[in-house]
Write a structure and sequence with these properties.
The complex is a heterodimer. By secondary structure, chain A is an all-alpha fold. In chain A, 67% of the residues lie in helices and 0% in strands. Chain A has one domain: Cytochrome C Oxidase, Chain A. In chain B, helix 5 crosses helix 7 and helix 6 packs across helix 7. The chains are: A mainly alpha, B alpha+beta.
């Protein structure tokens, strides 16, 4: 028995199908004016990677500055701009759209057996809005940057800085509409475009996760848009809504901002959880343990996620009783995440497990997300939050969730679906190496930050007391390794576009509808409307299908 | 060994021999906070170990070589119930324990002595009741509950003393409080932890914990000769507050004697407790609350008086006793440092006042 499930066609005769979504039309305009969800996903993938590497370079500068206790590499103002732009770019232009706009855009319609998203032009508009926002953000960085922190805290952002607050706010505002349109498109598509037989409880968990995230995108994003507009009005004409000297309330901004920005972390992580469900099922050859529990836990996270925002404000002077309520609700939102982790773990039980790259990233996700989630409970516990909030503990916590969780899930998904997107396999050995390097680099970068935070080192500091240096040196060393871990996939994935082995329709023998069509898919995805006559993750159905096909092939050969 | 690289070697010797993994415990609260912290760490480690053990053992037992054909299992309601209820139960324990500590940190004891702290870009100014001023440092005695009343003059700041495990935001436009009782003499870090602009990372200082004797000595050495309340009294006169608030029968403003901590009837029919925040609001935005029987004629002092000035006025009004005369407050010699019972006096307020101080935590 081999220790891989990869099942490739005979490489000497296999060809990439002549007609597919990549070859159907040619020329730059055929891309820039496309309505095809798959092409839009590719546009997103390229632009996301671009913004990710800008954000990553800024992270590199932060870690370099923190190598020594003094602010010696750059002026404190520059440092403040660097971490602000790192946050703005990574959150609004990488993490929020990462999985939904690329993998979600590409595979959500295919997974439910649809030809495209319900609103293809709106989908293209989303990308243009995203690009407009992203380019504006990069332009403001070139034009002097902004130093409010990505949280735009008032009254700092309204009265006390002279940097490009308005343009950066506008960039986030525009990108917000991109997010709203994507969410809207997904909700309409899931409701109206499912193939015959594709009932709600036959949908892959990836689709459930995107449905939950879409609800958050549509309902929460407008609130941050309002908050940004209010900041603009306060800055330009001084309406005084956040200004205490005019009877305004600076805490109001915190409420508005976190009403979006807390659900936003679930917008970021839920689609990643969807990826992990697909990957773990495929590489253990098993239906996800407790399918309905995992599906409903996504919805539960989305619903509870709306009612925990004030846990960002425990020490800001909200009433003690509000703290009680929000601390309790925060505990409740932690439960569905625990349910997911245990269900994924038990999916492995009595499976037939192989360890291709996507699975390694998924394992990495489970470990790091467990740490990220548990440390979130440290911060949701009102008492310990007092000591740990606003320190490197919180920095480590959200990087465990966002980088350890989301980025691992994103990379798992990119590797998992790479054969479907491009028709070619990525090189397995070096990819596994990259996954391991990323994991080691990540832990070395962010684990010391938990200790730094417990010691009390505040976040957003350009200089720090000398006794914190050793842990910062570890962290910077880890960031270097992490950087290598991220560069490797760019190199070998680009290489594989020309030299990768031809993948065939279903190299992983996965059950999703997206795998039952050619790779790369046709522009219309399926030659005929698929009919869903089985449950999700039904490996016995897949087995029967393949046997039938082999029999047919045998008959044809004999004939 | 040191031939490998002198730089690396020096680095190792210098830093590996002296790098902390856990902050010092220097307040009465710190051991309580750490007990909860260790409980959380323990639960996390157990949870993480369970996940890692299960994933590893399943990966070994059920890898494709050893277990070529997967057995399809739908799920298990019992298991779902187990891993819903057990984490939920643990989280609820953490919630209750955390809430108890939270209430402790933000509910000062009635006998706490009060120090005002004003945050501004980029420094911390502390105002002691005896008139001592400090910048970027805070002297406190051991064995005595100290309440900080914080406010910011510009943007959000956050006053953090990791060794005490306390932290509280200083917010523009309203007072917030936090308290602690230092237990170990020494010098500890004081950080601003809320990002506040250019020199955020230089808005740091030292918290110096002294024994009660040393503290009394420090008070005597650092005095400016005028107590905070006396400063307030001067301001009260120079801003002509006394023209109306003078306790005469025909005064245009209500008497302020004994007003602190009392319940006031407003013209709207509501009653409010006159705490620090109420006094501050009434100085800066007088027309918001009008005491019953008076007309809204008081001008606003917004922009004419600094946060330190407001604090001095509030402290003055706090110390106004039954007889409403200037001589009376000039004789509050027990507020001066060095005198017997000085440290005690500022804290020994009637219960009503202490409640007003606590009321500030709630908004």
């Amino acid at each position: 028995m081999s220790d891989t499930i990869v099942n490739l066609p005979d490489q000497s005769t296999a060809r990439i199908p002549k007609d597919n979504y990549l070859t159907r039309e040619n020329g730059l305009l055929s891309w820039l004016l496309t309505g095809d969800h798959k092409r839009i996903a590719i546009l997103y993938l390229i632009s996301l990677s671009f913004f990710f590497f800008i954000g990553g370079a800024l992270a590199g500068l932060i870690r370099l500055e923190l190598l020594t206790p003094q602010a010696d590499l750059m002026a404190t103002d520059t440092y403040n701009k660097v971490f602000t732009m790192h946050g703005v770019i990574m959150i609004f232009f990488f993490l929020v759209p990462s999985v939904p706009a690329t993998l979600g855009n590409f595979f959500l319609p295919m997974m439910i057996g649809a030809k495209d998203l319900a609103l293809p032009k709106i989908n293209l508009l989303s990308w243009y809005l995203y690009m407009a926002g992203g380019i504006l953000a990069v332009y403001t960085m070139a034009a002097g940057g902004v130093d409010t922190g990505w949280t735009f805290t008032t009254p700092l952002s309204t009265h006390y800085v002279n940097t490009n607050v308005l343009t950066t706010g506008l960039a986030a505002f525009i990108a917000g509409f991109s997010s709203i349109f994507t969410g809207l498109n997904f909700i309409v598509t899931i409701h109206k475009m499912r193939a015959p037989g594709m009932t709600w409880f036959r949908m892959p968990l990836f689709v459930w996760a995107h449905y939950a995230a879409s609800i958050l995108m549509v309902l929460a994003t407008p609130v941050v848009a309002i908050a940004i507009v209010l900041i603009a009005l306060e800055r330009t004409i001084g309406i005084g809504i956040f200004d205490p000297t005019k009877g305004g309330d600076p805490l109001l901004f915190q409420h508005l901002f976190w009403f979006y920005s807390h659900p936003a972390v679930y917008i970021m992580i839920l689609p990643g959880m969807g990826v992990i469900s697909e990957v773990i099922s495929t590489f253990s050859r098993k239906r996800i343990f407790g399918y309905t529990a995992v599906a409903f836990s996504s919805v539960a996270i989305a619903v509870f996620g709306f009612f925990v925002w004030a846990h960002h404000m425990f020490i800001m002077g909200i009433s003690n009783y509000a703290v009680l309520v929000f601390s309790l609700l925060t505990m409740l939102v932690a439960v569905p995440s625990a349910i997911k982790i245990f269900n994924w773990t038990f999916t492995l039980y009595k499976g037939s497990i192989t360890f291709e790259t996507p699975m390694l990233y998924a394992f990495g996700f489970m470990g790091l997300f467990t740490i990220g989630g548990m440390t979130g409970v440290f911060l949701g516990t009102a008492g310990t939050d007092i000591h740990l909030t606003e320190t490197y503990f919180i920095v480590a916590h959200f990087h465990f969730v966002m980088v350890g969780g989301m980025l691992m899930a994103f990379l798992a998904g990119i590797h998992f679906w790479w054969p479907k997107i491009t028709g070619r396999m990525y090189p397995e050995k070096i990819s596994q190496l990259a996954a391991v390097v990323t994991f080691i680099g990540f832990n070395l970068t962010f684990f010391p930050q938990f200790i730094l935070g417990t010691l009390g080192m505040p976040r957003r500091y350009a200089s720090y007391p000398p006794e914190f240096q050793i842990l910062n040196v570890f962290s910077t060393a880890g960031a270097t390794i992490l950087g290598v871990g991220y560069l490797l996939p760019v190199l070998y994935l680009t290489w594989s576009l020309k030299y990768g082995a031809i993948a065939g329709d279903n190299p992983w023998q996965a059950t999703g509808l997206e795998w039952q069509t050619q790779s790369p898919p046709l522009t219309e995805n399926f030659t005929e409307m698929p009919i869903m006559d089985h449950e999700a993750y039904d490996y016995e159905w897949l087995e029967d299908q393949q046997q039938e096909r082999r029999k047919d092939a045998g008959v044809t050969n004999a004939g | 060994m040191d031939r490998i690289s002198p730089v690396i070697w020096q680095f190792l010797v210098k830093w590996m021999t002296n790098f902390p993994l856990f902050p010092p415990e220097a307040s009465g609260l710190a051991p309580q906070m750490d007990a909860l912290l260790f409980f959380l760490i323990l639960v996390s480690l157990i949870g993480l170990t369970i996940v890692i053990l299960l994933v590893t053992s399943f990966s070994i037992l059920y890898n494709k070589k050893r277990h070529p054909v997967a057995v399809q299992i739908e799920g298990s309601t019992l298991l779902e119930a187990i891993w819903t209820i057990i984490p939920l139960g643990l989280f609820l324990v953490m919630f209750v324990w955390g809430a108890l500590i939270y209430f402790r940190v933000f509910t000062p004891p009635v006998n706490a002595m009060n120090i005002y702290v004003v945050g501004k870009q980029w420094m911390w100014k502390a105002e002691h009741p005896g008139g001592q001023h400090e910048i970027n440092s805070l002297h406190v005695p051991t064995g005595r509950a100290v309440q900080l009343t914080l406010i910011s003059q510009d943007v959000f700041h956050s006053f953090s003393i990791p060794a005490f495990r306390v932290k509280r935001e200083a917010i523009p436009g309203r007072y917030t409080t936090v308290w602690f009782e230092a237990t170990k003499p020494g010098t500890y870090h004081l950080f601003c932890t809320q990002y506040c602009g250019t020199n955020h990372s230089q808005m740091i200082g030292d918290v110096v914990v002294l024994t009660p004797e040393e503290y009394r000595k420090w008070l005597a050495e650092s005095t400016s000769g005028v107590s905070l309340a006396q400063n307030g009294e001067r301001l009260f006169a120079s801003l002509s507050c006394s023209a109306c608030h003078n306790a005469r029968p025909n005064a245009r403003g209500p008497s302020l004697a004994n007003v602190y901590g009392s319940k006031l009837a407003l013209s709207t029919g509501q009653t409010v407790t006159a705490d620090d925040s109420y006094l501050r609001q009434s100085i800066l935005n007088p027309s918001e609350h009008i005491t019953q029987g008076y007309t809204p004629i008081m001008p606003t002092y917004q922009g004419q008086i600094s946060e330190e000035g407001v604090i001095a006025l509030v402290e003055y009004i706090k110390n106004l006793d039954s007889d409403y005369r200037i001589e009376q407050t000039l004789n509050t010699t027990d507020l001066l440092p060095g005198s017997e019972g000085k440290a005690g006096n500022a804290g020994q307020q009637p219960a009503g006042r202490a409640q007003a101080a606590q009321g500030m935590v709630k908004q």
